[in-house]
Structure formats: C-alpha cells, structure tokens
Amino acid sequence: MSTFSGSDRYIATGELQRAVNAAITLQRPLLVKGEPGTGKTLLAEEIAAALGMPLVQWHIKSTTRAQQGLYEYDAVSRLRDSQLGDDRVHDIRHYIRPGKLWEAFTAEQRVVLLIDEIDKADIEFPNDLLVELDRMAFHVYETGETIEAVQRPVVIITSNNEKELPDAFLRRCFFHYIQFPDAETLQAIVDVHFPDLESRLVRDALQVFFQVREVPGLKKRPSTSELIDWLKLLVSDRLAADALKDGDIRQALPPLYGALLKNEQDVHLLERLAFMSRRER
C-alpha cells in the first residue's frame, strides 16, 4: 500500500507524515490532538484521498454512546409492528441499525474511519470501544452473529483535549500532537488556499496574526482556519486590507477582527492593550 505524504491541498509536516504511516504500519488507531482549527478532521479526509480509500466519518457529540458506533436495536419499532401484525416482526434483522464501525468493517474495500472529537463524549466512551478497535470485530447479541472487519480500516481519532483519555485506550493508539504551524509552514498553507494572493498582503496579515496569538492572557488564540477566513475577508475588502499596512495591534484592533477573536474578553483585552499603548506615547 502507498504511504501518506500530504497533498496539494494539505501541508503535512514530516513528523505528521511519519506518524500517519507508522500508525498504518502498526495497524493501530492514530490519535491526533492539537488546537481546534489545526486541520485534524481535514487530515482524515486527505489521508483517504491520498490513499484512494473511502472515508467513513463518525462525529462524536456529548450524547453519543459507543454502542451507536456498532449498531442499535430498535425495540420500540418491533413492538409497534407486532401490535399491528406486521410480518417483518419475525425477522429481528429488520430492527438492527448498523453503526459507523459496522459500515467500516463490512465495506468492500479498505476505508479510513474517522472518529472525530472523541473527547466530547462521556469519559467511559473510549473504554467501551477498546475490544472492538483491538479485535476489529464485535458481537450482535440480538442475532448471534459476529461482525468482523473484512479489511482492517485505517482509524483516525481526533481530540481537542477537553477531557483526559483513559490510559488503557491510549496504550492502543499511536499518538501525534499537531503543533501550531511556524511562520514558514503557515505561509505554505496560505499559498495552498490563496495561490495568487499578493505577497505584501500575506506578509502584513501574518505579522498581525502572530501578534494577536502572542498576546498574554488571550482566552482563545486564533487558529489556522480562522486565519484563512480572515484572509478571505481581506481579499474582498480592499480598505480593510490597506489598513493592515504597518499594522500594530498595540495601536488598534485588526480590521475585521471578528474573524480572529471569538469572545468579548479577548476583544476587551486587545482594546485595553491599544488604549494603554496610546497613553504611553
């Protein structure tokens, strides 16, 4: 099988490429952590595209249960059908709803399985999937059958570090933390999204962007995805783009700052910074 080396749309560092390929070689889930907006979910999409595999996505919510990833038995519908005299009631398979792991295990070709933001779920959620991800199989109690992976999927698990994951789960994963890109890597990412953007605008925008990220006490530092959104706005607003020239957040808030700052505390923090700087002049 071919190896992952990034793509024209996704700038993957050497460390990230090695982590992906190591997890595939070991046949272990790749657990990816990093700041929100650093491309963890997009990574799974790009791995699937680069390796020519279908992508099965399981987006986790706070109410998601591990069992939903295997299958769900709709006992209520079966009871209703039995009361209505429906013949389907005699075949329990009509009331078994396959989950994302079932879909990935039984796919005709090898797939990439994304378990996205696993830390949103209950703390027991990862432990409830230990055996299934280890053995790549699970038992369906209602029918007595075992669903086993025809071809072992490439499993990518993302986390925003909202909760600590259990040690037993971590032992079964290959781990990689996506560091926030340095200036050179961020420049390459911007070039992918805006290949024709004038160099002055990119230089000025990156300068202001890093100034914002380095402000002490910021509750939420802007991410790569927010930089991309901000640049889209600057491209469409010439006056705002021109206002970036020789930009200094110690003098005034960045133009269109709502794309970078996501809560009022951080806006007030930068406003105070600019106010104090002006007073000292």
Can you describe this structure?
- This protein is of the alpha/beta class.
- Helix content is 43%, strand content 14%.
- The chain is built from 13 helices and nine strands.
- It has helices at residues 14-26, 40-51, 66-70, 75-84, 100-105, 125-128, 130-135, 167-170, 183-193, 199-213, 224-236, 238-243, 264-280; strands at 30-34, 55-59, 71-73, 96-98, 112-116, 137-140, 145-148, 154-159, 174-178.
- The protein has a five-stranded parallel beta sheet with strand order 2-5-8-1-9. It has a two-stranded antiparallel ribbon with strand order 3-4.
- Strand 6 and strand 7 form a beta hairpin.
- The longest helix has 17 residues, at 264-280.
- The radius of gyration is 24 Å and the shape is elongated.
Give the secondary structure arrangement, pairings included:
Layout: H1 14-26, E1 30-34, H2 40-51, E2 55-59, H3 66-70, E3 71-73, H4 75-84, E4 96-98, H5 100-105, E5 112-116, H6 125-128, H7 130-135, E6 137-140, E7 145-148, E8 154-159, H8 167-170, E9 174-178, H9 183-193, H10 199-213, H11 224-236, H12 238-243, H13 264-280
Parallel strand pairs: 1-8, 1-9, 2-5, 5-8
Antiparallel strand pairs: 3-4, 6-7
Considering the chains and any ligands shown, give keywords for the structure:
281 residues, alpha/beta, five-stranded parallel sheet, elongated
Structural class comes to: alpha/beta
Low-confidence stretches: none
Written as H for each helix and E for each strand, in order along the chain, the element string is HEHEHEHEHEHHEEEHEHHHHH
Give the CA-based shape.
Answer: elongated
Query: Mind summarizing the main beta sheet?
Result: 5 strands, parallel
How many beta strands in the DSSP annotation?
9
